[in-house]
């Protein structure tokens, strides 16, 4: 197999139609260059040049080979630039798993507004999935970064950091009659919208424990798979929902947000996880999302 160096030598000789002039351009001696051309023709089994005393003229095969050689060299140069950009964190692709809370807290969009311009050259693919599913796919190499509600179990395959925490608030219908300061007894027996117990049994248990610790017993008669779906049911006057505080920035018709009783113990946490020794472009994103949370 011929080398890229031989191809570059051939292109130079072909363009100059003269070994001596090509040797000067390449900054090598004429004799080694002539030997390289002879070896290349021998390897290909075809004459690339018609030789005369003063000039070298490309043969038919030589013209075809020149076009392909230039294309191959251009692709090799492009590949080298691409790999260098990835190594320097100026390019690359990232697959990021996330939970709804990470989006509502604007963690990804904040990172993308980073002053590090390299982040805008990274190709992102965002995949919604539950926390445990993200840990499995992260360990299997199917995603690069995970944004989850909980930290993974101790594992040498995953590095994790808590990057965000915020309070829950109560979302209620506009005509609920609740004031700014809510007492736990006012919520006792009220209809609440929660995540489906079948799909999120641990979340249901934790929510009921938090309500009881705060001093009220909710009537969970409605279920929704996402906070926005829950807020839609609240808007229709069907019940109350506990959602993360970030959602209060939304203007939703007939929905009012209230502070929960101070005895309500739960809050929302978002954890950032990745494999050890991340690639340079992964590190650019990791730095950006961490830095934005420190501002």
Describe the protein's architecture and organization.
This protein has 295 residues and is of the alpha/beta class. It folds into 3 domains: 4-87, Orthogonal Bundle (Arc Repressor Mutant, subunit A), CATH 1.10.10.10; 93-164 and 269-294, 3-Layer(aba) Sandwich (D-Maltodextrin-Binding Protein, domain 2), CATH 3.40.190; 165-266, 3-Layer(aba) Sandwich (D-Maltodextrin-Binding Protein, domain 2). It contains 11 helices and 11 strands. The chain has helices at residues 4-16, 19-26, 30-44, 60-87, 100-104, 107-112, 131-139, 184-187, 201-214, 227-235, 280-294, and strands spanning 49-51, 56-58, 92-98, 122-128, 145-148, 159-173, 191-194, 219-223, 240-244, 255-259, 267-274. The strands form 2 sheets. Strands 3, 4, 5, 6, 7, 8, 9, 10 and 11 form a 9-stranded mixed beta sheet that branches. Helix 9 links the parallel strand 7 (191-194) and strand 8. Helix 1 (4-16) crosses helix 2 (19-26) and helix 1 (4-16) packs across helix 4. It starts with a helix and ends with a helix. The model has no long low-confidence stretch (mean pLDDT 88).
Strand content: 15-25%
Oligomer: single chain
Q: What value does the average pLDDT take?
A: 88
| Overall helicity | 40-55%
CATH-level-2 architecture of the largest domain: 3-Layer(aba) Sandwich
CATH class of the largest domain: Alpha Beta
In DSSP terms, counting alpha (H) and pi (I) runs of 4 or more, how many helices? Answer: 11
Which structural class is indicated by helix and strand composition? Answer: alpha/beta
Return the string of H and E elements.
HHHEEHEHHEHEEHEHEHEEEH
CATH homology-level superfamily of the largest domain: Periplasmic binding protein-like II
Rg measurement, Å:
32 Å
Low-confidence segments, ≥5 residues, pLDDT <50?
Answer: none
Number of domains: 3
Shape: rod-shaped
Q: Tell me the span between the first and last alpha carbons.
A: 55 Å
The major β-sheet equals: 9 strands, mixed
Reported by name, the CATH topology of the largest domain is D-Maltodextrin-Binding Protein, domain 2
Structure summary, number of beta strands: 11
């Amino acid at each position: 197999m011929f080398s890229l160096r031989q191809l570059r030598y051939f292109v130079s000789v072909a363009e100059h139609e003269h070994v001596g002039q090509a040797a000067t351009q390449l900054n090598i001696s004429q004799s080694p260059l002539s030997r390289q051309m002879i070896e290349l023709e021998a390897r290909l089994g075809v004459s690339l040049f018609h030789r005369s005393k003063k000039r070298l003229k490309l043969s038919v095969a030589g013209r075809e080979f020149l076009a392909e050689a230039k294309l191959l060299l251009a692709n090799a140069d492009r590949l080298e630039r691409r790999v260098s950009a990835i190594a320097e964190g100026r390019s690359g692709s990232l697959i990021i798993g996330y939970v709804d809370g990470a989006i509502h807290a604007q963690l990804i969009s904040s990172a993308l507004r980073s002053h590090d311009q390299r982040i805008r050259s990274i190709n992102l693919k965002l995949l919604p999935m539950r926390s445990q599913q993200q840990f499995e796919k992260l360990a299997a190499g199917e995603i690069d970064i995970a944004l989850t509600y909980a930290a993974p179990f101790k594992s040498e395959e995953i590095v994790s950091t808590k990057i965000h925490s915020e309070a829950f608030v109560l979302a209620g219908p506009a005509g609920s009659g609740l004031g700014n300061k809510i007492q736990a007894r006012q919520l006792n027996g009220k209809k609440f919208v929660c995540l489906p117990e079948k799909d999120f049994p641990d979340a249901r248990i934790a929510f009921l424990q938090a309500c009881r610790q705060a001093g009220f017993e909710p009537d969970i008669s409605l279920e929704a798979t996402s906070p926005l779906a829950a807020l839609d049911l609240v808007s229709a006057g069907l019940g109350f929902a506990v959602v993360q505080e970030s959602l209060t920035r939304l203007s939703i018709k007939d929905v009012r947000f209230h502070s929960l009783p101070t005895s309500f113990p739960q809050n929302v946490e978002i954890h950032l996880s990745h494999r050890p020794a991340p690639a340079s472009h992964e590190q650019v994103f990791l730095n950006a999302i961490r830095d934005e949370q420190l501002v």
